[in-house]
């Protein structure tokens, strides 16, 4: 089961870096490419003031973060698992 959902694009360097860090830490995630999924793009816009800013991460509790540092993601995942 995924710990979070990451909305991204294939060309986003910040997305690639965060995915690599989560992979190395063993944090499970599902990824949604907002350029291939119009509903996902609209969702990202809704949590980012109308902007398609990625990575946008949504956690199991429904909270969203935009371009969060890996340490913040890892801490949030650990808090939700506790």
Explain what the structure shows.
Helix content is 43%, strand content 21%. Helix 1 links the parallel strand 1 and strand 2 (29-33). It starts with a strand and ends with a helix. The model has no long low-confidence stretch (mean pLDDT 95). It has helices at 13-25, 38-47, 70-81, and strands at 4-8, 29-33, 56-59, 64-66. It has a four-stranded mixed β-sheet with strand order 2-1-3-4, sandwiched between helices. It is built from three helices and four strands. It is α+β, with helices and mostly antiparallel strands.
Mean pLDDT: 95
Structural class: alpha+beta
Number of E-state strands: 4
Terminal Cα span: 16 Å
Radius of gyration from the alpha-carbon trace, in angstroms: 12 Å
Strand order of the largest sheet: 2-1-3-4
Largest sheet: 4 strands, mixed
Shape: globular
What proportion of the residues is helical, as a percent range? Answer: 40-55%
Strand content is 15-25%
Number of helices: 3
Order of helices and strands: EHEHEEH
Low-pLDDT parts are: none
